[in-house]
Specification:
The chain is of the alpha+beta class and 189 residues long. Helices cover 15% and strands 34% of the residues.
């Protein structure tokens, strides 16, 4: 049915209880990333069992959208101190992982998800790492920006298109990106 990955970059979404989600997520972030204020940019998996009991507004949001039953993990994606993360795709198998529901949590003004026309063929993680599906921009190739999303606003992000977190400030920034299994092609493709 779906022969190629979708070509859209992002789809804005209105989240009624955004402020409440941001408030309840901060302690969860600090629990799982105690050095959040000083840590280098990263991608941290937090499973529903470690979020749902402490984040009723986040759970309500996922239920209201109709995706709660498919939610299998949320990633906290951070930037900090002007350190650049690589241009990458989240998974070479776009049918398995293609969409992230990205919600801004803290210090997201002046930060973006920037999308590129780029070749991505460099493994980011070691073989056997449970995150070894991500691939960075191929060495010695060019990347051309094709779009960007202001991360102070929630959106569905197409993580099968080469992208990168970009910050215009030095503060620690965090978003939460919900991921789903099976993937939500019926809803978002």
């Amino acid at each position: 049915m779906y022969q190629t990955n979708p070509k859209w970059l992002y789809k804005p979404i209105e989240i009624e209880n955004l402020k409440e989600i941001q408030t309840e997520m901060l302690p969860i972030i600090f629990k799982h990333i105690p050095d959040f204020a000083l840590a280098a940019p990263n991608f941290y998996h937090i499973f529903p069992k470690d979020i749902a009991p402490y984040a009723p507004n986040y759970v309500k949001c996922l239920k209201d959208i109709g995706v709660y039953d498919n939610w299998y993990v949320s990633a906290v994606v951070t930037t900090n101190r002007g350190i650049t993360a690589p241009i990458h795709i989240d998974d070479r198998n776009w049918k398995r992982q293609c969409y992230g529901l990205n919600i801004p949590i803290v210090n997201c003004e002046g930060t973006y998800t920037v999308f590129y026309d780029s070749e991505t063929n460099e493994p980011i993680f070691e073989k056997g790492d449970n995150r070894d599906t991500a691939y960075a921009q191929t060495r010695n190739t060019l990347a051309t920006e094709i779009g960007r999303w202001d991360m102070s606003k929630p959106a569905w992000i197409n993580v099968s298109i080469p992208h990168q977190a970009v910050s215009t400030h030095m503060k620690p920034r965090a978003i939460i990106s919900a991921r789903f299994e099976p993937e939500l092609h019926e809803l978002l493709y």
